[in-house]
Amino acid sequence: xxxxxxxxxxxxxxxxxxxxxxxxxxxxxxxxxxxxxxxxxxxxxxxxxxxxxxxxxxxxxxxxxxxxxxxxxxxxxxxxxxxxxxxxxxxxxxxxxxxxxxxxxxxxxxxxxxxxxxxxxxxxxxxxxxxxxxxxxxxxxxxxxxxxxxxxxxxxxxxxxxxxxxxxxxxxxxxxxxxxxxxxxxxxxxxxxxxxxxxxxxxxxxxxxxxxxxxxxxxxxxxxxxxxxxxxxxxxxxxxxxxxxxxxxxxxxxxxxxxxxxxxxxxxxxxxxxxxxxxxxxxxxxxxxxxxxxxxxxxxxxxxxxxxxxxxxxxxxxxxxxxxxxxxxxxxxxxxxxxxxxxxxxxxxxxxxxxxxxxxxxxxxxxxxxxxxxxxxxxxxxxxxxxxx
Length: 389
What we know:
389 residues, alpha/beta, Rossmann fold, 14 strands, globular, Gfo/Idh/MocA-like_OxRdtase_N, nucleotide binding
């Protein structure tokens, strides 16, 4: 690919689980180099992180504003090229907008913003600046998730009739869980998380997976959201019926209070000629069922010729050598690095990859808003199309 893409990070300091995941994923293929960061709201803690990562102290900044200002003054061959945003939700919007305005591309954790209005504001800024913007919807980047998408887009299962997606977790099942970790404390705080808890946090992943697999938009929703744990201010559990734009129907459940569950995201797609099933906790196999045929299980591997070529290109090991969460995350970084490289060379940017775009970010927050409105109005049907504009 040529010279490494230079990355700056906002957030992801000591005690932040996802920051280390991002750094490992970005480094996996050797395309990206972390050169600068503002890792914490505490300059002292930020310097500790920067020192552990081997960064020059002058490129470990006390604020993201100072980082963008100082990095933009560096010569083009040395300055940061893109910013990865790994902060709590309330900072996704201001950090992303500041980075775009300073001339940097942005790769952000989801959601794009804490509210639908914020997502629309960011969408306008992406269009105005012309910078690249991406979201890390990690689960869509697993090779067999991408294989499922290609099969469905070719119509191999016929017209899609029903979708079932579920995302149960158990890490917030008890009242004390809200304060037991840094991640839990901000996710259950409306001032940091935004207008929704569970549905904005993991419901958006389930929503994105439906649209990614099917290639269709969810157009209407009928939802019931609740806070199971007493005195929790945001939803921690919910379920929704939904409609796809070609008439298919589906169910989506997302919950963080299912005691004993880990990260059991799973999805079933039912077509007129067959169905498929994939689950994140066993990501290296995809189950295919066709009427009158035995069940087929596709397995991931760079040497599996029955997989699409673009899917095999995202497998790093032969069949039987499992790949997982870090590798899926790394696929997003590799695809985003390719987009930046194409921009460097004034080539057409191929956005048909694993990187979520700002339009997907807007639709995710439209889904959250629609689910909230539906739940508040006794689970009436809510059209999402007005929220897209």
